[in-house]
Amino acid sequence: MKGACAWIAGRQGGIHPYVKPLVEFLKPTQIADVASSFCDLQEARHEADYDHLAPLSKPAALTRIDDAEKAIQALAAASSAEREAFFSLLAICARLPHQAG
What we know:
mainly alpha, globular
């Protein structure tokens, strides 16, 4: 999911040719906001888990919870074609390393 979301959010290059049409389809949609939020939230989670010097505050945690809720709402508000493309991308990406390796 991380790689797919990074591609959609424009945070990572090297898009696999099998999925490039799906990624390009999703970039201008609400799913791009979901993907960007996923990247941000995962980064924050890793920081909280592994950076013992990172400041943690209740207001920051509440902001992240709000970000996650907005991403869930954006995913729910996306068209069925956008959600279908997103979930298809995730399913294909889950198989790519096995096919490539």
